[in-house]
Design brief:
About 65% of the residues lie in helices and about 0% in strands. The chain contains four helices and no strands.
Length: about 100
């Protein structure tokens, strides 16, 4: 193993670093979400992260996140089916060239 290779554990593989990003209120909706989440959770360092906002929205407005999750799942499923069809087509084309 080279010095530049990094060994990841299971937890690191399933952790999105974007969730730890702090959010600045540089638009009206961001400012509202940061202020609301900050007032609700009162973090010790006064830094509101994406994860904190997601948790707050999930508890206060679960229908919204459910729709987002459902859409994401369906798009991923559709993409998987398209990839499988493409792989099957490419495999048949490759097999036809070998004969």
């Amino acid at each position: 193993m080279s010095d530049t290779e990094k060994i990841s554990n299971e937890e690191e593989l399933h952790t999105n670093p974007l969730l730890a990003m702090t959010v600045e209120g540089d638009s009206a909706i961001k400012e509202f979400l940061v202020n609301y989440t900050g007032e609700r959770l009162q973090p010790e360092n006064d830094q509101v992260t994406v994860h904190m906002i997601a948790e707050t929205v999930a508890s206060e407005f679960p229908e919204f996140l459910f729709v987002i999750a459902e859409e994401n799942f369906l798009r991923g499923y559709q993409q998987g089916l398209e990839d499988a069809t493409t792989l099957e087509t490419e495999t048949k084309a490759t097999a036809g060239n070998e004969e």
